[in-house]
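Hi support team,

I submitted a single chain yesterday and got back a structure, but I'm not sure I'm reading the token output correctly. Could someone confirm the output below corresponds to the sequence I sent? I've pasted both exactly as they appear in my results page.

Thanks,
R.
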Amino acid sequence: MSVVRRDVAPLLQRVRAFLLGREHTQALRFEDGVADRTQPPPKIPDGPSQLYSANYYCLRDGRREVNPPIDLVEQQKQLAAEGTAPPKATKLPTPGQVYAWD
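Hi R., thanks for writing in. Yes, this is the structure output for that exact sequence:
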């Protein structure tokens, strides 16, 4: 049995399609337009954490990679005191031709 979708009158549908320049898609969901709930499970490839024998948690833990912040001013003062100059700031490369919008 076909379910009649709620919409405006056919004359107003044609006016709306003319004014939009395309067919209108409704935001309401009806049962015949929704995917079935009985879909097969996804086929996902195994990752590095699948086997317990190769699951090294300490290598994957992001908390172990955190270090205290670096004070750049103190580091530059130390380099100046040692006599080595800090590296010069170079101009960053641009990804290609730049388009002038003006």
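A quick pointer for reading it: The CA atoms of residues 71 and 77 lie 10 Å apart. Let us know if anything else looks off.

Best,
Support desk
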